[in-house]
Amino acid sequence: MGKDEDSKFLIITGNQALALGAKLCRVQVISAYPITPQSPVTETLSHYVESGQLKAEYVNVESEHSALSVCIGASTAGARAFTATSANGLAYMCEVIHWAAGARLPIVMGCVNRAMAAPWNVLNDQQDSMSQRDAGWIQIFCRNNQEVLDTAIQAFKIAETVYAPVMVCYDGYLLSHTVMPVEAPTQEQVDAFLPPYRPHTILDPENPKNINQVTLANPRLDERGVMCHGYMELRFLLEEALESARDTIVAVGKEYEEAFGRSCGGMLWEYRAEDAEVILVAAGSLASEASMAVDALRETGIAAGVVGVRVYRPFPKEELREALRDARLVLVFDKSLSYGNEGPICTDLKAALYGSESMPPVQGHIAGLGGRDIKAREIEAATRKALQNLEAGITTKPTEWLNCHI
Amino acid sequence: MGTRECGHTGAMSSPTKGEAGLTGQWRTSRPVVDHEKCTASKAGKTVCMQCWTYCPEAVIPKQVPIEIDMDYCKGCGICEEVCPAHAITMEAE
Ligand code: SF4
Ligand code: SF4
Questions:
Q1: Which residues constitute the domain of residue A137?
Q2: How far apart are CA A293 and CA A314, in angstroms?
Q3: Which helix (H) or strand (E) holds A385?
Q4: Is A238:A138 a contact under the CB 8 Å cutoff?
Q5: How far, in Å, is the centroid of ligand 1 from the Cα of A155?
Q6: Are A296 and A156 found together in one domain?
Q7: Which ligand 1 atom minimizes the distance to the CA of B60?
């Protein structure tokens, strides 16, 4: 099919791209509470609704907990629901983040990645969404504003296929407030790609149901005498949905590419990684930055490449094993930290490599916390240093903190 | 046979008696009604009915004599607490 002639190029921010993506998906209920740097998403969407460009209910609420709760109600009732937040707003949703996943509701939420307080800091890192990684949401990281738009559209299709919520994560300010050229598909194209939402349970007043009632440890016969799931079976099914999401994410990505002529990658994306001996791993815009470092390293004869973690949950275990198979050294750059351990991508990547045929040394880095600037040449220098250590036979070094002047 | 057969994606049940199982099994003490003291039993009419009003499990039907559905009574003791005639006593199971 390729590109549609009517699609148009816009110069927009990541936040505008997300709002436009939600509009093109014909979201029916939006509930969000403004927080920096997410606020323009809510402003743009409320403008769409107010001006009649989007036929949706925009529900004003007093908190993020209520915003996601409204989406939970709406999604249960069969409406395509959308919200967005950042940092402390996401943390304030925490209880219902788990609820949305446990209830298997295909809500899509933009998480405009921002540092967690205290102290207050409105700038970018990825601690907010990383801290919610175990809640049962699919988490997809975007590299640029085009991907924010494209991922929002794919996110609804993925969510509504596997019945799990999706978090569309992109870096605060670096993407949320930076304008970039974005190709916007037409409404007809998106309508052809994304069928209307069909909930897993149709609410019917003639046949009332208790939804997410108290469900104790053991399976239990229902009034028909049918053995129904206990808590553990329901959790197994959620895990099964997240595991099955890998294939869905890849398939939806391919389908999107066929329809729109653009790809954001599958579970991962790669840059000059094919023949690379040294592989840099990161998520989001930091991974784009690493691509520039790779170009510089290549110019000096170092065969470097980037493997970008596009999907963080479900974690791309097999895909990373495959992508890092021939690497002599792996560097991970995390914009968040599991305090008392190391960067979460670093931990998960090491666990994925455990038991694989080749187990390259992995050097973890913490970078860019609270908006601390990180330049391509600094990533390049970190790579050279790790290579020197490797040449000197040092393969296990503690996590390095980049640009930390302590 | 596993629970997949139920076909549910999330937790779901029908709002009907017994949908949460035999909750009476949770009880550690049971309410015992003394019909000699119960105002309703004595009058032979559904008067008083404080126990019926307050039972959070709705296991006391509006009838005389008072008869508690022990399959689902959780033994909370509220009926004992509210009975103005002290006609209900909680006894250990
Ligand atoms: S009030 Fe409590 S103890 Fe009394 S009948 Fe109801 S459930 Fe049982
Ligand atoms: S509250 Fe006591 S007196 Fe009143 S109806 Fe119930 S058992 Fe009888």
A1: 9-193
A2: 28
A3: helix A376-391
A4: no
A5: 49
A6: no
A7: 5
Q: What is the pLDDT of residue A2?
A: 41
The pTM assigned to this predicted structure is 0.92
A278 and A154 both lie in a single domain: no
pLDDT > 90 fraction of chain A, expressed in percent and rounded: 94
Total domain count for chain B? Answer: 1
Distance B30 CA to ligand 2 centre (A): 15
Q: Is residue B58 part of a domain?
A: yes
Q: Where a domain ends, among A193, A219, A253?
A: A193
- Going by alpha carbons, the residue nearest to atom 6 of ligand 1 is B55
Pick from A208, A227, A231: CB nearest B6: A227
Lowest mean per-residue pLDDT among A72-81, A134-143, B19-28 = B19-28
Structural domain contains residue A248: no
What is the ipTM score, two decimals? 0.85
Q: For all residues of chain A together, what is the average pLDDT?
A: 96
Three-state DSSP at A307 gives: strand
The pLDDT tens digits for A317-367 are: 999 999 999 999 999 999 999 999 999 999 999 999 998 988 999 999 999
Task: Provide, rounded to the nearest whole percent, the portion of chain B with pLDDT above 70.
Answer: 99
* Both tokens assigned to A60: 């004003």
Best of B78, B81, B86 for a ligand 1 pocket test (most atoms within 8 Å of beta carbon)? B78
- CA-to-CA separations, A285 to A144, B23, B66, B70, in angstroms, rounded: 7, 54, 70, 63
Q: Check residue B20 and give its pLDDT.
A: 77
Cβ of B13 within 8 Å of Cβ of A212? The answer is no
Q: Is residue A356 part of a domain?
A: yes
Confidence label for B18 from pLDDT (cuts 50, 70 and 90): confident
CA dist., res. A94 & res. A167, Å (int): 13
**In A203-261, where does DSSP find H-type helix?**
231-260
* DSSP code for A336: S
Size of chain A in residues: 406
pLDDT value of residue A1: 38
Which CATH number fits the domain that encloses residue B67? 3.30.70.20
Say which CATH number the domain at A121 has. 3.40.50.970
- Please give the backbone phi and psi of residue A97, each rounded to the nearest 5 degrees, phi first: -60, -45
d(CA A400, CA B43): 83
pLDDT, one tens digit per residue, over A112-122 is: 999 999 999 99
Please judge whether A219 and B3 are an interchain contact, meaning their C-beta atoms are less than 8 angstroms apart.
Answer: yes
B29-63: per-residue pLDDT in tens? 999 999 999 999 999 999 999 999 999 999 999 99
Strands annotated E in A144-189:
166-171, 180-184
Q: Which amino acid is at A104?
A: R
